[in-house]
Hints:
Elements lengths: L5 E4 L5 H14 L17 H6 L4 E6 L5 E9 L4 E9 L8 H15 L4 E6 L4 H9 L3 E3 L3 H5 L4 E6 L2
Parallel strand pairs: 4-5
Antiparallel strand pairs: 1-2, 2-3, 3-4, 5-7, 6-7
Amino acid sequence: xxxxxxxxxxxxxxxxxxxxxxxxxxxxxxxxxxxxxxxxxxxxxxxxxxxxxxxxxxxxxxxxxxxxxxxxxxxxxxxxxxxxxxxxxxxxxxxxxxxxxxxxxxxxxxxxxxxxxxxxxxxxxxxxxxxxxxxxxxxxxxxxxxxxxxxxxxxxxxxx
Length: 160
């Protein structure tokens, strides 16, 4: 793993780059074109949607200061948060960074008092789904609303 990677609190100035990261990664799977614009509007106001709402948002930079990953936790209710915006550039996969993203988000969720973490993803992202299962996430039924977006898989796990 690259010892020069740095986890940072996402700032509003990072929003455009986060949007580009999502487009790049989902585009490589051929699913970005079906992603409704509203799905990522939360990025356009990180303070309101995350930091002032019992959540958090990180970016990860490599040694050159390039954003290579993101991950966030978003409040669903007082006990449940959602793992959101967990993206890692393809060329950075397999280096343990994904595991670090997960561990960081779970630790912060527990620190904030959440007892359950949910997530939504796309069935084409089999590597991500395998990692979620490895960390104890189980499949749930996806709502019709979610199926209108690019997500057709819903998972959750209890936090200890």
